[in-house]
Amino acid sequence: MVLRQIDALGHCGFAVVFITMASGISSGQWQEVLARSALAVQRRNFGLDFGAWRDVLPEVRRRWPHIDELMLANDSVLGPIRSLCPVVAALRSGGAGLFGLTESLQGGPHLQSYMLLARGPRAVSDLMRFILTLYVSHSKWLLIRFSELRLARWMRDRNHRVAALFGYDRLVRAAVTDQDQCRRLATAHPALSDLQQLTQEAAVARLRQWPVNPTRHLWHILATRFGYPFVKTDLVLRGLTGCGGLDSWDSVVPHDAPCPLPVLRAHLEVLRSGPTGPPN
Asked: Is the CB of residue 56 less than 8 Å from the CB of residue 64?
């Protein structure tokens, strides 16, 4: 699946820098990666995705000193289950700035960092500066607090446009018109238990007051209504309170998906049998 993700990014015009914290990669697997990547790096298991990006960015800047577009991505999502090229084209249509697929209001408004695209030399430079000066910790919570939760605000403070392709308001407005989705959300938090009895505007207001995680609680409507190209990996592996219907997650994968179901299931089996569990 990861090789197909590299291929998908290459088809969208990116030179891929592959970073792994896995220790047991065979020579054959490395050759597969090297055939698809402009640079491949094996590093220590520290700092999750932002730590990896921070460690490798100096070499990226040395090799490619004039970058006007930079995508950051991690393998915490299953897919792509649809072509990435239309999604990337939509992100690029925003002009200069920092763009993500989804945003969350939990912990304050922020872009979810599994896929981010900086466009324009100034936005790329400021994103790099943010990462290179980042405090990296063994603590997942501290890392999220100082990286993902701060990044959007940090970029806005420097007058960059920051936006999500599948914005939170857009998703919840669609969700409150869908009875099945409302039933799923009603079990996500006690404050949402009466969501189906509220008017649409009141339900949207409630979901702003008690925000949910789009890639988890709105996974089904993302995939079926908006053509979202991924399913969150830990959602399938671990489940989550309030996420009904996860046993049928595979029903949202089209028959012609770039990563078909057998590939996704094989990836999940590797994660289930591995010593470190699923990615973060």
From this structure: no
